[in-house]
Design a protein that fits this description.
Order of helices and strands: HEEHEEEEH
Low-confidence stretches: 1-15
CATH topology: Signal recognition particle alu RNA binding heterodimer, srp9/1
Radius of gyration: 15 Å
CATH class: Alpha Beta
Shape: globular
Strand content: 25-35%
Number of helices: 3
Mean pLDDT: 80
Number of strands: 6
CATH architecture: 2-Layer Sandwich
Structural class: alpha+beta
Largest sheet: 4 strands, mixed
Number of domains: 1
Strand order of the largest sheet: 2-5-4-3
Length: about 100
């Protein structure tokens, strides 16, 4: 008898439990130094859309965490999103994550 994955991640009870397992760069990305145009808008996206918690923030960087995943955003005025690295977020249950928001 196996455990229902929906119960493990909390979607069956409506409680948000562990969803994010890991983050992996696609290409030359680095989760410890993710370039962003502005810290405020990036923090807003990661906290509002993806449910990350803000751990620390200053004028030029922010650290966010959710479950097993931690990222550090770095403000770069000349940042070009079209040239940015990409990341793969490994999640437990995509449907449950989508239902959170």
């Amino acid at each position: 008898m196996g455990t229902d994955p929906k119960e493990e991640c909390g979607s069956a009870s409506g409680v948000s439990l562990k969803q994010f397992n890991s983050i992996s760069p696609i290409g030359s990305g680095d989760a410890s130094a993710v370039p962003v145009k502005t810290i405020e808008s990036a923090v807003d996206f990661y906290t509002t859309v993806l449910g990350f918690l803000l751990i620390s923030k200053d004028q030029t960087s922010a650290v966010l965490k959710r479950d097993e995943v931690q990222i550090r955003l770095i403000a770069k005025a000349d940042h070009d999103p079209a040239q940015a690295g990409a990341f793969y977020l490994d999640v437990v249950d995509l449907e449950a994550l989508r239902d959170e928001h």
